[in-house]
Write a structure and sequence with these properties.
The structure is a homodimer of 257-residue chains. Chain A is an alpha+beta fold and 257 residues long. The first copy, chain A, is 25% helix and 23% strand. The first copy, chain A, has 6 helices and 12 strands. In chain A, the strands form 4 sheets. In chain A, strands 1-12-2-8-9 form a 5-stranded mixed beta sheet. In chain A, strands 4-5-6 form a 3-stranded antiparallel beta sheet, with helices on one face. The first copy, chain A, has a two-stranded antiparallel ribbon with strand order 3-7. In chain A, helix 3 packs across helix 4.
Chain lengths: 257, 257
């Protein structure tokens, strides 16, 4: 139950600008702390750190040389029909465990992690001019936990970490951010059984707070600026072991898979 | 194009607590300004106002007396099977123009506005102990424009207004906020054709900023507190005539309808 004081609590989103590009082998934690130092920023108890997945993937060396991909005949036909890169299509398929939709040039898959998104989250848009693709982090929860542990060691603080990516959605235009990795907090907030100000029970109300935090972070983590991370200050999160798997609806309960 | 200064810009989410409940006929603008006054809050140029749809629906008297609904045989059978209120099911159907999925007790419809959501957005969970249902605002864009105009008249400021609701999503657990009405700003931010820090063109990247702003607001607009609105300060929005219809993917381009 949130304390009444939280009613008036303001929330701050503080972007973190890195000094330089992230390369394979870099420590994301180090680069983020370094970027914060440059702006005299410091993490304080209660802060949440949101990191765009792209710098995690880069640091973890999740690059694939497209020249080494041999597209199948089916991928070639699909790519030809919709003016796509057949190697990127092939790679998206190898990164998936299920094709959810494949229609009109759009390939929606379920990734090995279980995320449902376009092209298995494979990114060829701005990696080395298009000769390489960037995959999602192998285990985004582990990547988040690593940063969480390193921050704890360096700062003696428990700072929840969310790793975010931009996903499209059925029915609605535009991408929004989602949490693909999490550490140090629960991703869902369950209001069921609690009472609203008038005393009525709130019935079906589970909020995907980790996704909402990722969206909020997306407002300050610019695509064009070098700000792949931000601090969220003032949100009363539920601490604990969380995993981004809690945010994935099991296929058996899903009406759209 | 965002100015370089925005790289370092912090964003603030300031909750607005109302003094009392909203009733049919109330002026939402007045109640919000009144609530702000109580906390010595003031809107400044650049602010965005996000308002939960529920107080809009209440002010506009969008209540339906469930006792007056005569459920069809089909709605009664469906409700019996899944232990639901047949009148609420019937009402959701009358508020829809298309059933997208109806399976395992879940009814996903396309509302008269074009939104795809559960039960046409009809809310029976905490309205008058369940005897009444609360519908979505009739024309949420108009409701937003009304507040926008009233703020302009009262404060001589152009403050974009977003009206938000919590929607569920395929594939992912938990609800997140979406914009169902908007005035004074563009709901989508199109990065296509722009260049990232390394000079590569960003290819497929349209952000649903209005939905991300709604999600951010959802973090401070508590379900349990009387904070159905918030100020978002520091976001570089694109001013202009916007409509929440831009956020709805046309059925013809949608792979999940």
């Amino acid at each position: 139950m949130k304390a009444p004081a939280s009613h008036h609590q303001e929330l701050r989103l503080i972007p973190i600008t890195l000094r330089d590009e992230i390369k394979a082998g870099d420590s994301v934690t180090h680069k983020i702390l370094d970027g914060m130092e440059g702006r005299s920023l410091a993490l304080i108890p209660g802060d949440i750190l949101v990191v765009k997945h792209k710098i995690i993937s880069k640091a973890e060396g999740q690059f694939v040389d497209l020249a080494k991909i041999k597209p199948s005949a089916s991928s070639r036909a699909w790519a030809r029909r919709y003016q796509l890169d057949a190697r990127a299509t092939e790679l998206a398929l190898t990164q998936s465990r299920r094709v959810v939709r494949r229609k009109r040039g759009v390939l929606i898959t379920e990734t090995r992690h279980g995320f449902v998104c376009a092209n298995s989250g494979v990114d060829v848009s701005n990696v080395d001019g298009g000769s390489h693709a960037l995959l999602l982090p192998k285990k985004p929860d582990h990547s988040a936990a690593k940063i969480y542990r390193e921050l704890k060691k360096r700062l003696h603080l428990s700072i929840p970490v969310i790793i975010s990516d931009s996903f499209g959605r059925p029915w609605r235009e535009g991408m929004t951010e989602v949490a693909i990795g999490i550490a140090g907090m629960k991703p869902l907030e369950d209001y069921r059984g609690r009472r609203d100000p008038r005393g009525y029970k709130l019935r079906v109300s589970i909020d995907a707070v980790a996704d909402e935090l990722a969206c909020a972070a997306g407002l300050v983590c610019g695509k064009l600026a070098r700000t792949p991370a931000c601090i969220i200050r003032g949100f009363r999160y539920r601490p604990g072991r969380g995993t981004a798997r809690e945010l994935i609806r099991p296929a058996a309960n899903d009406l759209f898979r």
